[in-house]
C-alpha cells in the first residue's frame, strides 16, 4: 500500500478501524449504481421508440367505449306479410258458333216481322259478353281472395319465429367430443314445441322440453320440463290465467311477467328477435329477459358481444355472439350463444359453463332429414329448416 492510500484509509483518532472501512464501501458503489440506472433508462427509452416506430401508420384508432343500450320486453310486431302474387291472366273462352237461324218463311203482306240485320250479331255477342263477365272476378271476390294484412305495432319489436326444423349438434364436455345431440323445433304459427337432448356419458341424457303458444310478446311457454339423467323430471307451469309460475320441485309460486321464457325457449326468442331486426343488435346492446328455471324465475341480461368466426363441423362461419351477464354478485354460471345468419340466425354454438367450471357445448352439425310425418302434414305457415339458405359450414352426411 502506498503512502497516499495509507493516509486516505487511516482512521481518525478514536475511530475503530472497521468503522472506517464500512463508511467508505457504500460511497465507492454509488457512482456505479447511478450509471447503471442511467443506462437502463436510456435502453428503456430506446426500446419504446423502436416499438412505436414499428407500428403501421394506418393503424386504426383505439375503439371508443361502447354505449350500452338496455332493451326490455315489449309487444312484438309480426313480420310484414309477403305481397300477394299477381293472378295469372285468364283467357276468355271463345263462344261456340251458334247454328244459323232458319230462313223465315214468306210472310203475309200485312206482317211487320221482318228480321233485323243486327239480331244475329247481338245474339252471338251475348254469350261472349256473358263469358267475359264470368271470367272477370268481381271486386268483392278479388278482395276476399287476397290475404288480409296483419296488424303491426310501430312501437313493437320486429319478430320472426324460426321455421320448423330438426337440428343436430356435436356435444362437447370440457372440450372432449361426445355423442351427437339434437334440437327438435316445431312451429305452426300459433303453437311451438322445443326438445333439447344432450347425451352425457355415465349419467344419461339431459332432456329439456318446452311447449306453448305464440302471443303478442313472442314465444309464450306453457310448460317447461327438465330431466337430467335418470332422475325424475322437474316441471315449471306457466299459468296465464292466474299470472303465476308454479313448480313441481318447490311449493312456491312466482308472478308471471309478460314475455317470460324458460331456459331454452329464450334461445329461440332471441333468435326470433334477431331474425326480425338483425341490425338492431349491435355490440353493447343488452336485452333483459324474464327466465324461469325448474324452481325459480329471474331476470337475464343478455348482451350483444359482436360478430365472430365460429368453427363448427366442416369449417368456419360468421356468427353473432351473445353472452349472459352476471345476474348477481359472484355469479359463476355462464351462458354464451352464437347465432349464424347463414342458417337463418339459428344457434350455431351454445356454451354452458357451470359454477364448478364444467362446460357443456353444442356445435352445429347440420340438419336432420325431415320426417315423413312432418312432410305429409304440410301445415300452413311452416317450412322445414332445409328450406333455409345454405350455411357457410359444410353440410355433414345425412344419417
From TrEMBL:
Source organism superkingdom: Bacteria
Keyword Ribonucleoprotein: no
Residue ranges, compositional bias (Pro residues): 75-105
Protein's UniProt keywords contain Kinase: no
Keywords linked to the UniProt accession: Membrane, Transmembrane, Transmembrane helix
Ranges annotated as biased composition (Low complexity): 106-154, 373-383
Transmembrane annotation, as ranges: 29-46
Protein name: PROLIN-rich signal peptide protein
Amino acid at each position: 500500500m502506498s503512502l497516499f492510500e495509507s493516509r486516505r484509509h487511516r482512521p481518525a483518532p478514536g475511530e475503530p478501524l472497521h468503522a472506517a472501512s464500512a463508511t467508505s464501501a457504500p460511497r465507492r458503489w454509488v457512482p456505479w449504481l447511478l450509471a447503471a440506472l442511467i443506462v437502463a433508462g436510456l435502453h428503456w427509452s430506446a426500446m419504446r421508440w423502436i416499438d412505436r416506430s414499428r407500428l403501421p401508420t394506418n393503424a386504426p384508432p383505439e375503439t371508443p367505449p361502447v354505449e350500452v343500450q338496455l332493451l326490455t320486453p315489449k309487444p312484438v310486431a309480426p313480420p310484414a306479410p309477403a305481397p300477394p302474387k299477381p293472378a295469372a291472366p285468364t283467357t276468355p273462352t271463345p263462344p261456340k258458333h251458334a247454328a244459323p237461324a232458319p230462313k223465315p218463311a214468306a210472310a203475309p203482306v200485312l206482317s211487320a216481322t221482318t228480321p233485323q240485320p243486327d239480331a244475329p250479331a247481338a245474339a252471338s255477342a251475348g254469350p261472349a259478353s256473358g263469358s267475359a263477365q264470368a271470367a272477370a272476378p268481381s271486386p268483392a271476390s278479388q278482395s276476399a281472395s287476397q290475404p288480409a294484412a296483419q296488424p303491426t305495432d310501430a312501437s313493437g319489436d320486429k319478430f320472426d319465429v324460426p321455421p320448423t326444423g330438426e337440428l343436430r349438434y356435436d356435444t362437447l364436455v370440457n372440450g372432449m367430443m361426445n355423442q351427437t345431440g339434437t334440437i327438435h323445433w316445431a312451429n305452426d304459427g300459433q303453437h311451438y314445441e322445443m326438445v333439447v337432448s344432450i347425451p352425457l356419458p355415465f349419467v344419461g341424457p339431459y332432456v329439456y322440453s318446452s311447449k306453448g303458444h305464440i302471443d303478442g310478446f313472442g314465444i309464450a311457454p306453457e310448460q317447461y320440463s327438465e330431466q337430467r339423467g335418470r332422475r325424475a323430471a322437474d316441471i315449471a307451469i306457466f299459468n296465464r290465467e292466474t299470472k303465476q309460475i308454479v313448480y313441481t320441485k318447490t311449493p312456491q309460486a312466482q308472478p308471471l311477467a309478460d314475455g317470460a321464457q324458460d331456459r331454452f325457449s329464450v334461445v329461440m326468442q332471441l333468435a326470433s328477435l334477431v331474425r326480425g331486426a338483425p341490425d338492431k343488435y349491435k355490440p353493447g346492446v343488452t336485452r333483459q329477459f324474464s327466465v324461469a328455471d325448474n324452481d325459480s324465475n329471474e331476470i337475464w341480461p343478455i348482451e350483444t358481444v359482436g360478430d365472430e368466426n365460429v368453427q363448427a363441423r366442416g369449417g368456419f362461419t360468421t356468427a353473432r355472439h351473445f353472452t349472459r351477464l352476471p345476474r348477481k354478485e359472484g355469479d359463476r354460471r355462464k351462458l354464451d350463444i352464437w347465432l349464424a345468419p347463414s342458417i337463418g340466425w339459428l344457434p350455431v354454438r351454445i356454451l354452458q359453463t357451470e359454477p364448478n367450471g364444467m362446460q357443456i357445448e353444442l356445435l352445429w352439425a347440420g340438419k336432420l332429414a325431415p320426417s315423413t310425418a312432418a312432410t305429409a302434414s304440410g301445415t300452413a305457415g311452416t317450412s322445414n329448416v332445409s328450406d333455409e339458405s345454405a350455411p357457410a359450414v359444410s353440410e355433414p352426411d345425412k344419417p
